[in-house]
Structure formats: C-alpha cells, structure tokens
C-alpha cells in the first residue's frame, strides 16, 4: 500500500511539472499582458512606459528565466507577487480556497444525498411511473446549465421574497446561520446537476448488478429485499459511482466559476477568471497548480477507496 | 357626547395622527448616521490610484477618500465654471489675465495618517501629473498628462498658497481641476502606495479593501467641512454579474447602482418591480463613434469618410441598439445634458443627421465620386472591442454601410489589444466608445482631436482646427468661446475622421431613502459622498 501511494505521488510530481509547463506556455500564448490591460484602462499606450513596467515586473526577461524563477519560488514556498494588486499572491489566494472547497464539498454532499437514493429507487422500480419521473428529473438536471439554475434561484428569491443571499462572504464564526444560507443555495444549484449524473450512474450500475446470479440467488433464498439491494447489490454497484463522485469533486473545484459569480461568492474559480482577464500570471499559475493538486489528490483518494469498498482490489507491493 | 361631537373628535384625532405620521417623511433636514451600500461592477483595477487610470471602476470608489483643490458642486446637476466650489482651496483667484491661478488653501486640513496638508502636496501632485523635470513623484502610467501641458510651473510660496503659472490663458483649466480625475495626492506617500491603499484628506477613511469582495470606508471625524459627512460609512460591494447587480438593487441589498450601468430597459424593469425606486436619466458623457484611420486608404479620402458618416442613421441606432437610452449629438455632449452641445438646427445640417433615405443617397453619390459602386463595392475590416456594447453598435453600423455599397467584416479585438492597436493605427475603420471627464472642450478636443495625442485614434491632424481649439481654450468671453466650440464641432463632423453617433444616457437608480446623491452630466465627477445622507 505504502509503495503504491509513493508511486502515485511520484507520478503526481511529474504530472504537476507537466501542468506547470502547459499553464505557463498557454498564458504567454494568450494575446496581451498585464501592462496592455493597465494601458487599456488608461485609454492609451506609451511604448517607453510599457517597457519600464515590464522591467519592473520582471516580464522583460526571457521566458525560460521567468519559468525557472516561478518554479524556484514555488519550491521555496513563495507564490510571488500579484501583478494586479501589487501584493503577495498567497495573501490574495489564501481566503479564496476555503470558500471554494466548502462550496464544492457541500454541493457534493447534496449530489450524493439526492443522487444515490434516487438512483437506487429508479433501478429497483425500473420502468414504473416513479422511475420515469425520476429519470425526467435527472435528465433536467443534466440539461439545465447550473449558471441558469443559479440565476433562476436568485431571480426567484428576489421576485417572490424580495430577498437575496448575502453579497459578501459571511464567516461561520461571525454568523453561522447566515453562512449556511449563503452556501446552501449555490450548493443546491450545482449539486442538482451532479446529483443527476450520480443518479444515472447509480441506476445503470445497480441494474447491471441486479441481473447477476448471486443477486438472483439471494432473492431465491428469500432474503429481505432491503438487504439484497443495499448490502449485496449496491455495495458491488458503488465503484463506478465513487469514480464519478471523485471526478465531480475535481471538476467542481475549478468549475464553479459561474455559480460563484452569480451568487457573488469570493471563491477560487471566480477569482481565477478575473485573474486570467487581467493576465495576472502569478495568481493564475498558482491557482491552476492548486486545482491540479486537488484533482490529483481526489483521484488518489478514490483509488484508495476502491480497496476499502471491494476486497478483491489489492494494491501491488 | 352627541354623535356629531364624536365624529368631530374622531376627525381631529385622525388629522393629528396623519400630521404626526407624515411629518418626518416631508422633512428634508439631513440626518446623520447609517452606512450606504453601493454597487461596484468590478474590483478596483488600480486600487485608489486615480491618476494612473481612466476607468470609473477606480475613480468612483476612490473619490470619497480624496479631495481636489476645487470640485463640482455635488448638489447641482449641471457642471460648469459657475458650479465649481472650493475643496482643499478655500478660494482662488485668476491673475495676470488668466495666466496665473492662485489657490488659497484651507488651514488645519490633515491627511488620514495625521500629517498636515500643505501647498507642497499640491506642487507634488501637479508636478507629477505634468511630468515636470524636477517632479518629486512619478506615475507609472499618466493618462491625463495632456490636461496639464499648459502649466508652466507650480509654485508653493507658503504652506497655504499654491500658484499655477500658465503658458497661455486657459480659464477652463479650473474645470479639469474640478474633475473626479484630479485629486491631490499626499507628497509624503509614494504614488505607488495608492494602488493598495488610500491616504487622502476626504470625508471618508479607508477601513478595509477585501480583494474581489468589497471596499469599506468609515467617516473621517477630522474632515475639514464641519458637520460632514453625514454617513457613518460606505461599503462598495463588488458584484461582477450584471443580473446579480440588478437583483441586489431590487432586493434592497444595495442602495445605489453603479454609474453608467443601468440601461433604459433595466431601469424600466426595476421600476416595474419596485415602483418606489428613484431613476434619474443623465448623460454619461460617453459617446459612440466611428474611428477611421486617415493615414491609410480608403479612409484617407474625405469623400469615403463622409460617405460613412452620411450612411449611418443615428436615430435608428439610438432606437435599435440603445433602446432609446441615448441622444444624438456632435463631439460635445448635446443639450440639455451638456453645456456645449450644438443647437438642433446646426445638428440636422451635419452629415448623417438628415432624412435617412436622402443621407444614404448622398453617401452613394460620394462613394461613386470616389470610384466605388455596387458593382465594385468597397471591402473593409471593421474592428471593435470584444464587449457587447461595442459589438452591438458595430453590427448596426456594418448593416448601414452595406446599404450604400461598403462591405465591412467585423473583427472583435480583445480589450488587452484594443488600445495598442488603435494607438498604433493598425486598423482601417473601427467602432469605438469615448468617455470624457468633465464636460469641457479642452478635456475633449486636446485629447481626442489634438495632433499627436495618443487618444486621437484617427490620427487626424488639421492645423486650422488646431488653432481654433487653442483659441477657444484661451477665450475669456463665454459667448465667444461657445461660438468657437460650435464652429469646431461643425468642422470636425464635416471632416468625418471620427463621426459621433450618439451620447449614452445612464438611468441612475437609487432607493428613495438615499438623499443628495445627484448625478451630473458626467459619470466621473459626483462620487465624493460628502453630502449624501440616508432618510430612514
């Protein structure tokens, strides 16, 4: 097990190295840089002034030198300085991370709580009215973009109740109730889409397992229906569902852009888009690396879970 | 008690009760206290460094922290020389036939960090802005250097006097000094520090700037105007999504919209949902215009440029693209929104302002004279910024041009590339928006039509017009100046290097409890918040 984890972590380091190169190159390929944006907001351009600012920011150096200094900084725990805010990048990024992680986790909880039971019911009641209703609901979840749903929720709140969730971040230590309200609605908007996916995977996986001989045997032995479904069938059908949950979590960390924007939540994804628009290289590069690390770790955790859920899975020494 | 007596008593009691209830509502005596929540459309692009930017996203939330020497009276709608009031300058005096402008500064004014404000700060700021050789401070970007080219020297003979020596008379310099873009910086604070914080003398002190979330100010108890500000604090809440901004205003989570962001349609929707909201239409001092590169064919040909100007039906553009939320006008904001706008009779005589069918015929004739016909159409590339308001306008113009035989393809340019491209003249024709600080010809003409100005995107240079621009700037007689400004506008439109299509209106929306926040005819100059109070 330890060897397996060590191998995976070694591969993760290589993956992160690849990611760092890709994000560094992609950012430089995008037209314009922070200095162009600064001049755009001033409404003119001056070549000499531009050169001076590039020099000041260290952007006049060759690309390889910029890359090496970025990687060196990361290895020493220094994330550099935000071009836009003239402050250490970590100071900017630090408060964003818990917001996004909390929203992603809460969305996932909603998705699992809604998706798994409905998937099971849909499979057990295959081709009944209830199954059709649940499938329509799940299809709606997949078809409805979460940003649209988010906007509908906001407009619904303001139209019917003359109220919208808090517009600035409320710390749970400041006001727990308001904090929960602030996160529940966006988590529902995002979680609904994920729950639809989880429901469909649960249903199809469970249907497949329920056709297996050992399930038929269990039924023939007169075992309790709940025991057959929850203990025998679902346990064997859950692996693909866990995989999807892992992928969804990784997706949510970077994919909450619109939900964070619509609900005005100061998270990583919303900030990342603003940083990209401003070509704030240190912030973008480090946020992307953060997302990559979360994706790698969540994949690793999912792989570890396989062993827990399925005794047949063994990790090579 | 008889029934009649009883009914009289009831009526009297009801009247007393009604008076008691309605009394406070009709009272307009300002009240102190409360925090005003204000919409901010994006995080502050350059912090509070107003002198290093040209966007209202910086100047609007920075204004409460800072002060000018002079400012436009926040309680008057129209900005002009008559509405300029003193801020850090208690009074001022023109001397030597408008060649010297002497400011007598207030005494006892302190910066938010406790340091005293003196004439050194004035000299520091304006030497930095005009890039004097011996300037103590330097800006990394200086977008309004052109405003101050006429200042020869700034003298600080004593701590409470500052003298601006001018190269030639320029009465309207006062208007540029009154703009929200002309605050005084502290000499003891590096200019770069304004990108991350704000040390001002203004009515509000910066409490916290939580990046991407909000900017919070608290009342400055040492403010030099007694009894001001009325509010205890201000909170500018960053709401990037337009739909959420509107919902927040509708729900009362914010009290004030962001200037320049409420279209006519949005205002109508808001008013329908919340009838008590107060909507004030006013000119943003921002115009839609077409830039044509006069250095490159085919727009080096006046006939082709004029054909473009004749072809565009301005009134249809206002209806179709702006949903009626704009007005037509030449290069100065039209009346009654602006002071220097052309009169209606002069406007309709300009290219593109007549009857659409006749104007298009005229355009076709001009093109034919330039050798362009439906059989041999002119093919051009129209550039514009990849932002909806630009693209919508450009698409309309392309359709208008097609009707006279000009086939234009649209090229959307990212914001980061737009100004470098326009400044370098790497385009043929473009759809552009231009915002002007104060409603004054000097602020507009030198910047957008002056020979060699980096914002003269058409690169048009006409000596005769240049002389007229100088003449109006030096003219002391207001009537004569107005006549000169009208002549310049007519000549500029007749040369069609940068035809103006319309002037945008904003439908500034606030809750009725917000008092004394009065929009002017420019979005850039009314954000000090010193006089604003909440009637709750």
Element order of chain A: H for helix, E for strand: HHHHHHHHHHHHHH
Q: What is the spatial order of strands in the main beta sheet of chain B?
A: 12-16-11-15-13-14
**Uncertain residue segments of chain A:** none
Report the average pLDDT across residues of chain A.
Answer: 90
Q: Give the quaternary arrangement of the chains.
A: heterodimer
Quick one: which chains have the greatest interface? A-B, 48 and 49 residues
Count of β-strands of chain B: 18
Instruction: Describe the global form of chain A.
Output: globular
Strand content of chain B: 15-25%
Secondary-structure-derived class of chain B? alpha+beta
Radius of gyration from the alpha-carbon trace of chain B, in angstroms: 25 Å
> How much is the radius of gyration of chain A in Å?
24 Å
Q: Note poorly predicted spans of chain B.
A: 15-26
Please describe the biggest sheet of chain A, giving its number of strands, its sense, and whether it closes into a barrel. none
Query: What percentage of the residues of chain A does DSSP assign to strands (E)?
Result: under 5%
Number of extended strands of chain A: 0
Summing up helix and strand content along with how strands pair, one would put the structural category of chain A as mainly alpha
Walk me through what this model shows:
The complex is a heterodimer of chains A (317) and B (536). Chain A has helices at residues 2-29, 34-42, 47-57, 63-75, 89-93, 96-124, 129-143, 146-161, 176-210, 213-220, 225-255, 257-262, 268-277, 281-309. Chain A is globular and about 85 Å long. With 317 residues, chain A is mainly alpha-helical. With 536 residues, chain B is α+β, with helices and mostly antiparallel strands. In chain B, a hairpin with a 3-residue loop joins β8 and β9. In chain B, α7 (302-311) packs antiparallel against α10, α13 packs antiparallel against α14 and α14 runs antiparallel to α15. Chain B starts with a helix and ends with a strand. Mean pLDDT of chain B is 92; it is low at 15-26. The chains are: A mainly alpha (317), B alpha+beta (536).
């Amino acid at each position: 097990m330890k060897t397996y984890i060590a191998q995976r972590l070694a591969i993760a380091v290589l993956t992160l190295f690849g990611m760092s190169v890709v994000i560094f190159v992609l950012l430089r390929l995008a037209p314009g840089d922070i200095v162009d944006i600064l001049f755009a907001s001033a409404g003119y351009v001056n070549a000499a002034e531009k050169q001076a600012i590039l020099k000041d920011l260290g952007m006049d150096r060759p690309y390889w030198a910029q890359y090496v200094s970025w990687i060196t900084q990361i290895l020493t725990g220094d994330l550099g300085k935000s071009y836009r805010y003239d402050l250490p990048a970590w100071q900017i990024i630090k408060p964003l991370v818990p917001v996004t992680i909390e929203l992603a986790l809460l969305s996932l909880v909603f998705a699992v709580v809604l998706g798994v039971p409905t998937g099971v019911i849909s499979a057990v009641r295959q081709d009944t009215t209830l199954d059709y209703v649940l499938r329509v609901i799940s299809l709606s979840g997949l078809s409805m973009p979460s940003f649209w749903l988010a906007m509908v929720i906001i407009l619904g709140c303001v139209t019917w109740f003359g109220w919208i969730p808090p517009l600035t971040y409320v710390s749970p230590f400041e006001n727990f109730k308001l904090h929960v309200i602030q996160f529940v609605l966006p988590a529902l908007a995002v979680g609904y889409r994920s729950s639809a996916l989880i429901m469909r995977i649960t249903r199809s996986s469970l249907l497949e397992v329920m056709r297996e001989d050992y399930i038929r045997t269990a039924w023939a032995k007169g075992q309790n229906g709940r025991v057959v479904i929850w203990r025998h069938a679902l346990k064997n059908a859950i692996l693909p569902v866990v995989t999807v949950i892992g992928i969804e979590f990784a997706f949510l960390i970077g994919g909450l852009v619109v939900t964070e924007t619509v609900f005005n939540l100061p998270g990583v994804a919303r900030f990342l888009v603003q940083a990209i628009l401003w070509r704030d290289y240190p912030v973008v590069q480090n946020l992307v690396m953060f997302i990559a690390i979360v994706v790698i770790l969540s994949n690793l955790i999912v792989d570890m879970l396989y062993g827990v859920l399925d005794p047949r899975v063994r990790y090579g020494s | 008690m008889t029934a009649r007596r009883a009914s009289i008593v009831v009526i009297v009691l009801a009247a007393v009760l009604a008076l008691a209830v309605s009394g406070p509502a009709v009272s307009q005596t300002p009240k102190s206290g409360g925090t005003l929540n204000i919409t901010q459309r994006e995080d502050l692009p350059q912090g509070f460094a107003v002198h290093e930017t040209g966007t209202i996203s910086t100047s609007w939330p920075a204004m409460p922290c800072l002060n000018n020497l002079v400012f436009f009276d926040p309680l008057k709608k129209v900005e002009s020389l008559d509405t300029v009031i003193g801020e850090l300058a208690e009074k001022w005096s023109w001397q030597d036939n408008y060649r010297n402008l002497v400011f007598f500064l207030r005494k006892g004014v302190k910066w938010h960090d406790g340091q005293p404000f003196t004439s050194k700060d004035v000299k520091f700021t304006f030497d930095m802005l005009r890039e004097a050789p011996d300037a103590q401070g330097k800006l990394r970007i200086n977008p309004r250097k052109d405003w101050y080219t006429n200042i020869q020297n700034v003298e600080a003979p004593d701590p409470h006097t500052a003298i601006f020596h001018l190269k030639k008379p320029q009465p309207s310099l006062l208007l540029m000094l009154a703009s929200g873009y002309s605050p005084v910086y502290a000499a003891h604070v590096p200019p770069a520090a304004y990108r991350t914080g704000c040390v001002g003398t203004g009515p509000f002190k910066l409490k916290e700037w939580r990046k991407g979330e909000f900017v919070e100010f608290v009342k400055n108890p040492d403010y030099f105007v007694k009894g001001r500000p009325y509010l205890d604090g201000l909170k500018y809440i960053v709401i990037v999504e337009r739909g959420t901004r509107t919902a927040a205003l509708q729900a009362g989570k914010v009290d004030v919209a962001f200037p320049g962001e409420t279209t006519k349609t949005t205002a109508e929707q808001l008013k329908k949902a919340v009838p008590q909201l107060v909507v004030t239409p006013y000119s943003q001092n921002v115009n839609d215009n077409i830039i044509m590169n006069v250095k490159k064919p085919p727009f080096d040909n006046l006939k082709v440029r004029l054909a473009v100007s004749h072809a565009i039906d301005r009134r249809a553009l206002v209806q179709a693209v702006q949903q009626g939320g704009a007005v037509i006008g030449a290069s100065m904001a039209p009346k009654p929104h602006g002071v220097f706008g052309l009169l209606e009779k002069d406007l309709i005589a300009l290219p593109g302002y007549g009857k659409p069918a006749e104007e298009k015929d005229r355009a076709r004739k001009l093109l034919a004279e330039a050798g362009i016909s439906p059989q041999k159409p002119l093919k051009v590339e129209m550039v514009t910024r990849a932002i909806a308001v630009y693209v919508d306008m450009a698409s309309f113009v392309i359709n208008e041009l097609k009707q006279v035989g000009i086939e234009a393809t649209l090229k959307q340019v990212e914001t980061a590339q737009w100004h470098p491209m326009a400044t370098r003249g790497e385009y043929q024709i473009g759809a552009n928006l231009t915002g002007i600080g104060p409603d004054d010809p000097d602020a507009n003409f030198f910047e957008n039509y002056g020979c060699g100005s980096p914002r003269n995107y058409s690169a048009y240079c006409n000596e005769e017009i240049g002389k007229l621009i100088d003449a109006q700037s030096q003219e002391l007689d207001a009537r004569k100046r107005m006549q000169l400004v009208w002549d310049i506008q007519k000549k500029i439109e007749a040369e069609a290097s940068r035809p103006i299509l319309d002037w945008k209106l904003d439908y500034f929306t606030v809750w009725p409890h917000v008092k004394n926040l009065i929009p002017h005819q420019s979005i850039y100059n009314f954000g000090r918040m010193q006089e604003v109070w909440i009637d709750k």
